[in-house]
Amino acid sequence: METLAYVAFGVYTTIILFGGLMAVFSRNLVRALVGLALTLFGVAGCYLLMAAPFMALMQILIYVAAVSIMIFFAIMLTKPPVGAEEQPGRPWWVVAGCIVAALAPTMLIARVLHVQPLVSHEHPTEIVLMDLGQTFIEPYFLAFELISVILTVAMAGAVLLAFERRQGQ
Amino acid sequence: MTALSMFQLVSLLLLGLGLLGVIWRRSLVGMLISVELMLNGAGLSIVASGQLTAASGTVGHAAALFVMGLAAAEAALVLAIIIVVAKRYGHIESARLRTLRG
């Protein structure tokens, strides 16, 4: 079983890496979005591995379904020129600078992870969903309400921003 | 290497890819996609910390769900902003958006 878990972890990590590289470097924005969806599926698999099937389902429901569709709408509504959204051809020092700038903070955190070894439970237990519901309505009630307010305000603001006034008004 | 370190390294990979994408991408939609990558890494890291340490797994789940909610709100707003920018300027390239006038 242990070996199987490692194999599954390797497969999911490969999916995440491949999808992430596709999302970052693909010229076509729709392909980049497909890469993002692939990565999100890989992360959902990681959630399954750490005994959090609820989070995996939420990941697929919220990210793969809702957020991806929203980004697809953004691509569709802004009508970028077909084929080449990102012009090729950058000098090598720009490429190197991009990679160094992205690697620097990542390496800093990796160093922290290396210096400070993490104590880990190798056998996670699945949480009871009832407890999660209790967490939302008892100790974290205010945060739960605030996030609904934020979602409502964000949606209303989005509608207001993108609203097209009729001619002559 | 413990299981927790492995999951944290995967979320670190997502963070690095997202940062690289935000720097690399020229269009606003591409940058939005990269920000989603980073937020996903944050969620993965939080759930791993909740599930694989002595900390409460329930709170880890709740925090990751909050991150997901905020990511959805952020994506909706950024989508609206991108549509407004595309309508006003006719393109969504971050390097060509230089006007600060209202």
Parts with pLDDT < 50 across at least 5 consecutive residues of chain B: none
What is the total tally of β strands of chain B?
0
Name the quaternary structure.
heterodimer
From the 3D structure, determine the CATH topology of chain B. Answer: Helix Hairpins
Strand-and-helix sequence of chain A, N→C? HHHHHH
Q: What is the fold-level CATH name, i.e. the topology of the largest domain in chain A?
A: Four Helix Bundle (Hemerythrin (Met), subunit A)
Q: Name the helicity range of chain B.
A: over 70%
Short description:
Chain A has 169 residues and is mostly helical. Chain A is built from 6 helices and no strands. Chain A has 2 domains: 1-84, NADH-ubiquinone/plastoquinone oxidoreductase chain 6, subunit NuoJ (Four Helix Bundle (Hemerythrin (Met), subunit A)), CATH 1.20.120; 127-169.
Structural overview:
The complex is a heterodimer of chains A (169) and B (102). With 169 residues, chain A is mostly helical. Chain A has two domains: 1-84, Up-down Bundle (Four Helix Bundle (Hemerythrin (Met), subunit A)); 127-169. Chain A is 75% helix and 0% strand. Chain B has a single domain (3-96), classed as Orthogonal Bundle (Helix Hairpins). Chain B contains three helices and no strands. Chain B has helices at 3-24, 28-52, 57-89. Chain B is elongated and about 50 Å long. At the A-B interface, helix 1, helix 2, helix 3, helix 4 and helix 5 of A face helix 1, helix 2 and helix 3 of B.
